[in-house]
Structure formats: structure tokens, C-alpha cells
Design brief:
Strand order of the largest sheet: 1-2-3-4-5
Helix content: 40-55%
Number of domains: 1
Structural class: alpha+beta
Radius of gyration: 17 Å
Largest sheet: 5 strands, antiparallel
Number of strands: 5
Length: about 160
């Protein structure tokens, strides 16, 4: 369920009370653990935590690099923690910390979703993902594009 809200405050105001409470609790944990260099904004119809374009303007789509996001979808609420995918090691460490909470590891390629969130689960997840500073996330995101540019140049020769 994509939101047309332009600010986080508008987004939270349009949510039903039970979802507003859950999203606000997770948002608080994320903001407490968010490394320096990220901005909270509304992007792609959800609350995002992103590397500002002023810090890293060379993105493939001209949009800021998303590090994490919160969304209230039609049938569930989701925490998107893209920062854990910087390396296999960070993803494995995240998975281990998540499983240590005793909860089922319900993660797609980039999303951790649930109808009911627990603050305990959220805290361990966010603390594990906070290890990625914005400069490291920016440089890791740039690597695949550099390889693609190099491959295109080789094909032109």
C-alpha cells in the first residue's frame, strides 16, 4: 500500500492507530541506532533512511541510496534493511542475531516483515544492521555499477 504522504508526520497520521503505534516503536529503535550520515525521509511511499544525494550523488537512478525503510503494507508491516546485504558476512551475522531471538527468520531478499512486531526482535535486527556507515554503504553500492561500466567499455572495443 503506497502512501502519497510527503512527510513522516503525514505518513504516521494516515495509519490506523495499531499500525501507527507499531511503526512508531520500530522507528524509534531505528533512529536510536542509525549511524551518522543517513537522513530520514519519505521516498517510494514509505519512511526511508538513506544516504543523501549531497553525500553520494552518483546513483544509477538519481535517487538517494536506501539503507533501511519502514512500510505499512496492505497485509503486513515491513522493515527493509538493505544495509545488511553489503556482504555475505554481514548478512550471515544479521541472520544469526535474528535467529538468536527465537523468532522465525522471515526474510526475503531484502525485507523482514511481520504482522506483529516485537521490540526485542526489532532491536537486535537494527543493532546488527547499524554496523554499516554511510560511506561504506555508498562505496559498496557503487561496485556493481563500476563493473558494469567496465564491461560495457570492453564490449565497445
Amino acid at each position: 500500500m503506497r502512501s502519497a504522504a510527503r512527510t513522516v508526520r503525514e505518513y504516521l497520521a494516515e495509519l490506523p492507530a495499531d499500525r501507527r503505534k507499531a511503526i512508531s516503536a520500530v522507528r524509534k529503535v531505528i533512529r536510536e541506532n542509525l549511524p551518522d550520515g543517513y537522513d530520514e525521509a519519505m521516498n517510494w511511499g514509505m519512511i526511508t533512511y538513506q544516504v543523501p544525494l549531497a553525500t553520494y550523488p552518483d546513483t544509477y537512478n538519481g535517487q538517494p541510496l536506501m539503507y533501511a525503510a519502514l512500510a505499512s503494507q496492505k497485509n503486513h508491516m515491513a522493515v527493509y534493511l538493505t544495509g545488511i546485504y553489503i556482504s555475505e558476512g554481514s548478512r550471515a551475522a544479521f541472520e544469526g542475531a535474528y535467529r538468536a531471538t527465537g523468532k522465525r527468520f522471515d526474510v526475503g531478499s531484502r525485507v523482514s516483515g511481520s504482522e506483529r512486531w516485537t521490540t526485542c526482535r526489532c532491536r537486535s535486527s537494527v543493532r546488527r544492521s547499524r554496523q554499516c556507515r554511510s560511506r561504506r554503504w555508498s562505496s559498496a553500492s557503487a561496485r556493481p555499477r563500476r563493473r558494469a561500466r567496465h564491461a560495457r567499455r570492453q564490449l565497445r572495443r
